[in-house]
Amino acid sequence: MACQSEQPPSELVQAVEEFNRGEWFDCHETLEELWVGEKGELRDFYQGVLQIAVALHHWHNGNFKGALILLQKGGDCLRRVSAVCLQVDVARLRDDAAAFLEKLSAAGEERMAEVEPSLAPKLHLFS
Asked: Given 31, 44, 65, 125, which is the most exposed site by the fewest CB atoms within 10 A?
C-alpha cells in the first residue's frame, strides 16, 4: 500500500482517534502493528506518528528528555513523507510537532508541566 492510496486502514483511523483523545500509548500500540510490516515511505510515516505519540506520552508523564528526543526523531521521519499520507495531514502534524518541541524546549524540564495541553499536536484526516 502506498501513501497516496484512497482509504486509510481501519487501524490507522483507530490510531488517529486514540491520538486525538490523548491516548498516546494506545495509539503507539495500534500503529506498531501497521509499522512492523511496512517499508519505505509508509514505514517512515507510521514510525514518525508513533514516535510523536510516544513523545506526548512521555511529556504527559514528566519525561522531559524522552519527549524531546522522540519529538525530534518523529519529525525527522515525517520529513521523508509526502505532505499527505493515507489521508493524514502530515505537513500539519510535522509543523505542529515542531512548534510543540519548541515550546517544550523553551519551558525546560522544570516548567514542562506548564506547557498548555491544547498545544499538543492532533492528527487531521482529509476525507
From this structure: 65
